[in-house]
Amino acid sequence: MDSANWSDGPAPHFLAPAVTRSAKIVVAGAFGVGKTTFVGSVSEVTPLRMEEPITEASVGVDDLRGTPNKTTTTVAMDFGRIHLLGDRLVLYLFGTPGQTRFRPLWEGLTEGALGAVVLADTRDLDGCHEVLGLLEEQRTPYSVVINVFPDAPRYPLEELRQALALDPGTPLTECDARDGRSCVYALITLVEYLTTRHAPASLVEPRS
Does this entry carry the keyword Nucleotide-binding (predicted)? Predict the structure, then answer.
């Protein structure tokens, strides 16, 4: 990844006038981990959702044990948008499907992304390993965010870091995907991490 993925140039008319940078961010994770809810919680526009009802074709294929009330699944992507840094930065959020059979689509959605938020569920930490492996292969920087489900066990973040075999510098935080404020905090954590990998000043300085 390189700094070219921080896009700049004249802001389209539907963005805040102060926008000087934009970036594509992928919201990834296993099936039923809360990606659609996360995107919907933070998006300033009505999120685009490409979902279909879960049918009998999912039996034996999609693991519904952790989400028995789930009736739909993302089959293409979710899309949302949010301004940060005093409206100087706009993030375009692309939520991926969770099932591993959509891996070719994961690869396409991560192309050109500056970074990724990987949602994880403590009831099935192994579920995010394939996503993490793909991002590592594509050299896409990421943060891991534990979606705190009401009935999920809680563990110290350091224990979770070890269980996920994360590098010491990889951000690891918690959020409630239903709560926009905690999701925004997770995005800010990722952006701060990404600016350490690029030129921080290029993100916040206005164009001359």
Answer: yes
